[in-house]
Amino acid sequence: MNALSYAVVDATTMLRRNLKHMLRYPTVVMFVVAIPVVLMLLFVYVFGGTLGAGLDAVAGGRHEYANYLVPGILVLTLAGGGQGTAISVAMDMTDGIIARFKTMNISRASVLWGHVLGTMVQTGLGLAAVLGVALAVGFRPDANPVEWVAAIAVLAMITLAFAWLSAALGLAAKNVESASNLPMFLFLLPFLGSGFAPTDSMPGAVRWFAEHQPFTPFTETLRGLLLGTEIGGDAIATIGWSAAIALLSYLWAMSLYNRDPSLR
Questions:
Q1: Helices and strands, counts by H and E, the chain
Q2: I want to staple 65 with a disulfide (CB 3.0 to 4.6 A). Which of 48, 92, 202, 227 is the partner?
Q3: d(CA 48, CA 209)
Q4: pTM check: above 0.90
């Protein structure tokens, strides 16, 4: 076996470790699901009639707003998974387990890859649950099988980027408590994008920010794939933002990880 093969085996072992933690503490998955579902129910059933009418003065309503809202809720679900990643990474860095891993002949990157891949599995389960509730409240996508595959690929790409960013934030945190707070901006940014309302309804400065932050192209790309709306350049922006966030976060995370005194 070459070095890459050993790294893959080590990462798989670390993934199994994180999946066992997930089974032992299912409240993390419940947290990933609960907040998006509560927000979806609130916006659809409390505000949906009014906001739907704003989308289309003729045919707008709760059903139309549910279709508009759900892609944004799915992206919000991805962002919400970051807190658990940051906390679990920070716990590893403060509980002494890293010192034990140091004595083992394993790839250093595999420890973080285990967290990242575990986050992707956890978030995927959360997305499935949120989508199930969305269908129950009136979400009706018209995507064909190819568009569904593309939508899943987009969600996986964004999840990978957020997972690495959250891992880096967990490494940068001084303790577990601060690690739980650092990723909170990821949960707030979807509200300042096109997830809950069209950006052209926003005032000047807010609209400019909404149109130039990553969550708007994320949402518009997903909305286009699932509902057939125009995607335009949002697909390219989604790929660019995801690749940039993933790469820079990976480099930041590995730099913090290797610089940690317990690894010297």
A1: 13, 0
A2: 48
A3: 25
A4: no
